[in-house]
Each structure stands twice: as C-alpha cells, then as structure tokens.
C-alpha cells in the first residue's frame, strides 16, 4: 500500500505530502489519516481514502489549469469570472465571513494604483474577484457571452474529450469563427448580433480567395456559414439567452443561385465503364488493405471514414445474427467520430463486400482496427489521397471522386425502387419522423435492409428472403 506507514503504537496510517504543483490550491502540507490498528483494517480502509486523495489532487490540478487559462491574454471575461467565482467559494468554504470577504477585496485592490474611484491595471481574474467579494454573485453578474464563448462551449459540449483532440475539426471551427470576428472588427456579444453583421460576414467569406488566386467555392462558403450558424444556435440555447434573441444568420441569402452553383459542384456517380476500369486498377495496383477498403466502399455505400475506422469487432459475420445477416457496425469510438446520430447504424454486407469483409478479418494484425494503416487520426485523408491517385489515372473528371461510390449506391437504390426509409437506414442519412428514428428493433431493420441491398445490387434473394417478403406482402394486403 503506497503512502502507508506503521506508527510507534503499531497502528497503520496514510501519510502523503501534498504535491508542490497544487500547493496553492491544497493549502495543507500533507494528507494524513489513521487506517486501523491491524493490517486487515488498513487493507479495508486504504482503497477508499487513497481514491479520495487522488480525486482531490486531480481536482486541484484541473482548478489550477483553469486558473492559469483564465489568466492568459486570450482568455474570455466569462472564464475569468468563473475563476473568480471559484476563489470566492474557496474563501467561504474556509470559513471567511462576509466582512472578511470585503476586507480581502480591499487588500487586493490596494495592491494596484488607484484613480479617484477604483484600482487601475487590474487583470481580469483579480478584477472580477474584487467585485465578487464585495458584491456577491447576485449583485455582480457574469459577463454576457460573446461569440468566442459560444465557440468554446460548442467544442467542449459537442466534441467531448475525444473530439477536442481532433485538431483538424477544432482548427476549422476556430478558423470559421475567426473570420466572423475579423469581418466585424470585434468579438460580438451574442445578444448584439444583427442582420447587418451577418451580411458583413457573408460578404467577407464570399470574397475570400485561395492560395492559387481562385475564389473560394460556393459550396465551401456554404459549409462555413452552416458551421457558424450551428455555433450561434448552440450558444443561444445553452447560455439561456432571452427568447427575443435570434440568430441573424438563419435563412440568410448567400447572394448566389443555390441550385445553379451547387449543381456545378455536385459529385457525380461513376459511369459504368469508368467504374469498372477504376475497380480493376485498384485491385491490381493498390495495396491489399486499400483494395479491401475500396471493395467495402463500393459494396456498402458507406463514407470513407466509416470504413477506415472499422474495428475487427465491428464486422459481424458469425453468431446467431451475423451468420444470417452479415453486416458491419458503424459506431462512435475513440479512433473515429461519426458524422451524425443517423450515421450510427448496421450496414448489410452482401456479394463482393461480404467476400472483402471475410478477407479483411482473415488478415493477421496487431491491435483492434480492421485496417491498421488507415484506422488512425488522419487515416481517412491518407486513404482518400491514395485512392484518388488510382481514380485520376482513369478519369480526370473533377466531379468523379471516391465519394462518388455513395452516389452510385444511391442510383442503385433508386433504380431498384428501394423505399426511402431503407435507403436512409443503409446510407446513414437523417430519418424522417420520430417513429422512424426511435421505434423498431435493429434485427428487423437489418432483415429489411439486407433484402434491399441484395435487390439493389442484383443479388438473387434466398428462399428465406422470398418467404419473408411474401409474408410481409400478405400482411400489408390484409
């Protein structure tokens, strides 16, 4: 038992010095507690108290990190206010009276130069601490949230611990909000945003040019505006702003023909001859791992990141369900985020995709990822670049890319007259009403989507599939 010693009287006690890096938060010199007179008593009492000490040290480190962050030049007023509120709470928990809080505030203020009314040159944390000690949080309210505050909260709440480590996504969010702040010449309060502000930001985004001198595409601007709207909508809701607060970016005309511009940039499905040539090229020249990824993309209609991020356990080909309805599970895990809630799903694997899945499982590997070379941060980008080299050797059409395989699958569904619900369940598109989103078991959906996938890919239905289809038809007629 670490940090345990035996006293002269023969009892056992826990004794541990407070780490220097948190001494400013944990003001006592050491953690000390008697665990028992016998080794048995000590063994029973040790785990709980040791865990309590570890939690206290961890909390202190978090608070210290928050205090440091709140003191940085880029920290927001709300972060500084939150740290000041914590400092006030510490004094109260230490038994300091209201009069003592006021005296502490006066002592802090006296440390700075004074003008006629108040100290000058006070850092934000100290400024808020002085006012909170004098007035309390009921009379001295938190600063109004601004756009950067909304961004910080959006990243913390929407991305979570794993998402915050995704530097690419976080960087994109900061870049989009940074453009808005630059266009407005200020970090606006959420309640002060106007329609005129929205137009200024829109014009700045539409006027941007890339490094090669070309204007940023309409689709890129549209994506960035959608991201900005999401951050603002989230901030309005989570900061409990007045009901009169509106997002001025909602329904904002981007000043271009949405249909014409979007049509010119839309990805197209591969023509049959081109797709055949690309498939042959990939199977012959690409690495075995990359060729398997392509076959699964072609046979499932999944997004590239959904395939590269598969774990071995996500491929279900055996067991009571997997043997009858082979499928892959697209889920959120530590190495891969999914695009939306609708993206979390079970996708049938039939035909060549099933054979590719079997081969992928049979390959000896270390770790849990089905495709170790690409099941990592940046893996989907690397896979896309590698696959596009093979695509470009066959076609230079800019509208034909790896993601065109999803359009091919969509075309297959349309031509096979697959119901929209089945299509969305397979492709991971948003479902309609609450009944489609919430109700129904995964087995029933998998049974139905497996038949839909076979029909779309021209694979004959089994006798069991035919019987099930006939039964459903008769039930529908009844």
From TrEMBL:
PROSITE patterns the record matches: TYR_RECOMBINASE
Highest taxon in the source lineage: Bacteria
Any one Pfam family match given in the protein's UniProt record, by short name: Phage_integrase
Assigned keywords, A-Z: DNA recombination
Domain Tyr recombinase: start-end pairs: 265-453
Coiled coil spans: none
Name of this protein: Tyrosine-type recombinase/integrase
């Amino acid at each position: 038992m670490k940090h345990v010693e035996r006293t002269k009287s023969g009892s056992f006690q826990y004794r541990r010095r407070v780490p220097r890096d948190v001494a400013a938060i944990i003001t006592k010199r050491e953690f000390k507690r008697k665990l028992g007179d016998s080794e048995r008593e000590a063994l029973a009492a040790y785990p709980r108290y040791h865990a309590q000490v570890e939690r206290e040290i961890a909390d202190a480190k978090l608070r210290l990190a928050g205090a440091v962050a709140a003191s940085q030049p880029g920290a927001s007023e709300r972060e500084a206010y939150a740290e000041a509120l914590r400092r006030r709470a510490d004094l109260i928990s230490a038994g300091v009276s209201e009069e003592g809080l006021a005296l502490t505030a006066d002592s802090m203020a006296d440390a700075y130069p004074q003008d006629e009314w108040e100290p000058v040159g006070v850092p934000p944390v100290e400024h808020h601490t002085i006012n909170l000690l004098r007035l309390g949080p009921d009379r001295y309210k938190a600063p109004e949230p601004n756009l950067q505050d909304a961004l910080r909260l959006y990243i913390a709440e929407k991305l979570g611990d794993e998402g915050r480590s995704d530097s690419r996504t976080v960087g994109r969010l900061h870049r989009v909000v940074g453009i808005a702040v630059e266009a407005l010449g200020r970090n606006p309060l959420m309640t002060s945003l106007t329609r005129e502000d929205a137009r200024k930001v829109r014009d700045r985004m539409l006027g941007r040019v890339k490094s090669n001198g070309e204007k940023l595409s309409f689709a890129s601007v549209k994506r960035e505006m959608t991201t900005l709207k999401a951050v603002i909508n989230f901030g309005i809701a989570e900061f409990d702003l007045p009901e009169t607060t509106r997002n001025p970016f909602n329904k904002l005309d981007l000043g271009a023909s949405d249909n014409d511009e979007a049509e010119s940039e839309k990805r197209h499905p591969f023509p049959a001859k081109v797709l055949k040539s690309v498939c042959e090229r990939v199977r012959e020249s690409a690495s075995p791992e990359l060729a398997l990824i392509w076959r699964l993309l072609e046979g499932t209609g999944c997004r590239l990141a959904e395939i590269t991020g598969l774990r071995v356990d996500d491929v279900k080909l055996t067991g009571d369900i997997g043997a009858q309805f082979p499928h892959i599970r697209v889920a959120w895990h530590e190495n891969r985020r999914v695009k939306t809630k609708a993206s979390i799903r079970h996708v049938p694997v039939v035909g060549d995709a099933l054979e590719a899945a079997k081969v992928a499982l049979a390959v000896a590997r270390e770790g849990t990822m089905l495709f170790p070379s690409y099941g990592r941060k940046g893996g989907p980008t690397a896979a896309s670049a590698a696959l596009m080299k093979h695509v470009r050797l066959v076609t230079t059409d800019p509208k034909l890319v790896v993601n065109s395989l999803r359009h091919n699958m969509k075309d297959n569904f349309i031509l096979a007259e697959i119901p929209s619900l089945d299509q969305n369940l397979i492709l991971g598109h948003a479902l309609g009403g609450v009944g489609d989103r919430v109700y129904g078991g995964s087995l029933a959906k998998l049974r139905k989507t497996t038949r839909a996938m076979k029909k779309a890919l021209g694979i004959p239905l089994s006798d069991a599939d035919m019987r099930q289809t006939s039964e459903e038809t008769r039930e529908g007629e009844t």
